[in-house]
Amino acid sequence: MYDGRSGIRGPMDFDEAWARFKIAEERSLKNRAEGILAYALAKALPEESQQELDRWAKEDRRLAREGMVELMDEQGDIYHLHIEELRPEDVMDRLRAETARSDWLGWRRDQRIEWVEVWRNSSRR
Fold this sequence. Notes:
By secondary structure, the chain is mainly α. It has four helices and two strands; from the N terminus they run αααββα.
């Protein structure tokens, strides 16, 4: 909360925090609907299928256009809810799903870097 004098914000109340969370989720849906996953996946790694990556990206765009967000329960099972159905008690499942996706994309990035290094080193010989 802003006191108007010092310019310093104090702790948010629950309603403000929830509103900000929903805004962030709406932005994420918009980015997904515009194909950000396809951009992040780029080209298949040697052990991957480009067709499968394209299918995942297309499905992610479709779900985002429908307003569906991905969640992951404590057992690691994925499920989807419409953004308007999200409740505060879903936040941990939502964060768990987002963390899993970020970890996977980070792993793919690291694999791509390794693959490029191997390719560069082999082509210099």
